[in-house]
Amino acid sequence: MSELPGLFAPERVAVVGATERDGSVGRAVTANLLEFDGDVVPVNPGTETVFDRACYPDLGSVPDPVDLAVVVVPAEIAVDVVRDAGEAGIENVVVLTAGFGETGSKGATRERELQETASEYGLNLVGPNSVGVMSTAVNMNATFGPESARDGSISFMSQSGAFITAVLDWANDRDIGFRDVVSLGNKAVLDERDFVAAWGESDDTSAVIGYLEDIADGSGFIETAREVTQETPIVVVKSGRTEAGAQAASSHTGAIAGSERAYEAGLEQAGVIRAETVEELFDAATMLDGQPLPESDGVAVITNAGGPGVLATDAIGDSQLELTSFTDDTLDSFAEVLPDEADIYNPVDVIGDAAAERFSDALDVALADPNVGAALVLACPTAVLSFEELAEITTATQAEHGLPVAACLMGGESTQAAQSILDDAGIPTYFDPARAVTGLDSLARYREISTREYAAPTSFDVDEAAAREIIERAADRPSNALGIEAMELLDAYGIPTPEGAVVDTPSDAERRAAEIDGDVVMKVASPDIQHKSDIGGVRVGVPDDAVADTYEDLVARAKNYQPNATVLGVQLQEQVDLDAGTETIVGVNRDPQFGPLLLFGLGGIFVETLEDVAVRVAPVSEPMAAAMIDEIDAAPLLRGARGRTPVDEEALVETIQRISQLVTDFPSLLELDINPLVATPDGVVAVDLAATIDPEELDR
């Protein structure tokens, strides 16, 4: 990983397209750079000076080395300018110009040329279609936005340029500062992964925040962010909460694990805290920027108003935090420092006549309690309370104990001086108690993230060659679907299946049924008919003397239902006692950004109705597979609820891992469902299979 010093700490910046013409982007960028600590070099063949600085006709004519080139020229010549930058030995380029991949096929072609040029010269290229970059460390505002960032230690990336300009305006009003800011634009070369890596290496970035609309390389982002979040928190707003990714899916898993599920799983596995709103983004960022991590989830609330205290209590109940139960010693100490009318139980109500000193006494007692991980000071204005004095006392008490504290000052103009004092001490202030709790919750969430240990996926001894043969054989058929005729695929990866076979004549069905003990299960073997039970394509408990007639009936139903379907015959299976186990589903859907998504949940015919599932990005380790089982609401059913015999959970965990390995080994598997995977006290058995393959991926 690299800190990208030439991008965020350059000594010389060239603006290609610099001008003094009013209303132009070239003027805005050049004017913004006039406060830059280093040298600004205008480049424009049409003028000799820009803002009293010598202007050069092209980058090749600039006499001294340039660290960063900002390109503000028409799209038709932008690629040529980037090539000139490469020829001139400039390693860092920001292309503000629009008219690339966002505009259609012609622009997409131009963007590919830009990527090829950047690759040829090894350029760190931001954009195109970018607002630019900032670094407060060197007073560099290489954007055409109206505001410069205040100095701080939060680094900020955004896929929307307008979002950057709006946020900077909003943040400046609230004295929120930044270290580095980048408008990602079209992400033709550098993307979110590169900046997360760079800021993770920087000692000057305390937290990374971002607004993202997509993630270019989901699995790569997970890998990078996992490493970075061991030391540096990452908080993002991800827009586009849509199930559009599931619309074209044919399997249960594909219908459930759409695009939004992929991002939920991917960001969680990456250790990224996901904010729902811009306010949540900055509530988390400012808390993570200025406060220590709590050692526990217990929160003490100190307030002079009962109603807001209840609001805070409700918000704590909605979070992963908990309202601390104080020790007896703490309760005794509260009784000594607070009046008899006060409520010494959490939330602690110091009552309405409390001056700042009473707040301080209560906060001091609360933070000394071993059960308290953090505290919320919640105050409403009264005639006897000085917010400014409360702020001074709160900062001193927090510093003495070294535990995180949030302040909720429920007032207007009267709180401004106090907010300034608290902000200087790194204590975030809020009006809404729920937002204060959200900030504290982000600390607890990041404490868990920063201490995670990531285990490597288990590599099982499997018959990969046999699996490949089955998939390649299916690829020769007109359909790209696999069904129960490919159960050997599961056998190759060590997943138990019932005894059985696919037969293509009634006589073969009778012969094979005679070899299976007891009555059999018969299913239409057609990769084109996914939900066989919907057409009566499944028969359970068929005796030997009814096998031939059942065969004829099932094939006829399939052909009547879908005349153009490929019908391979009928699969016979030994009958599995479903009542002795619990029907689950293990499935995979391949996401465009994150790759294979692994799903586990209750199976059978109700899987899409209940959607009681857990989703992860494959490959998964043993702890991750076990966590998927823990996560579903129906986990108690698997563990013996209401007198049931617990299932073999180890077998379930192993099966999830084996499917993870299968879809990781074969990118050609686009979708896969084992439904049901019957879990019993003695193990698991895969009863049905449906899959979709991409023949073009078979060579990978």
UniProtKB/TrEMBL annotation:
Keyword list, A-Z: ATP-binding, Ligase, Nucleotide-binding
Annotated source species: Halococcus thailandensis JCM 13552
Source taxon at top rank: Archaea
Domain ATP-grasp, first and last residues per copy: 487-523
Lineage, highest ranks first: Archaea, Methanobacteriati, Methanobacteriota, Stenosarchaea group, Halobacteria
InterPro entries, per the entry: Acyl-CoA_Synth/Transferase, ATP-grasp, ATP_grasp_subdomain_1, CoA-bd, Ligase_CoA_dom, NAD(P)-bd_dom_sf, Succ_CoA_lig_flav_dom, Succinyl-CoA_synth-like
UniProt catalytic activity: acetate + ATP + CoA = acetyl-CoA + ADP + phosphate
Molecular function GO labels: acetate-CoA ligase (ADP-forming) activity; ATP binding; metal ion binding
Official protein name in the record: acetate--CoA ligase (ADP-forming)
Keyword Endoplasmic reticulum carried by entry: no
Pfam families with a match to the protein in the record: ATP-grasp_5 (PF13549), CoA_binding_2 (PF13380), Ligase_CoA_2 (PF19045), Succ_CoA_lig (PF13607)
EC numbers on record: 6.2.1.13
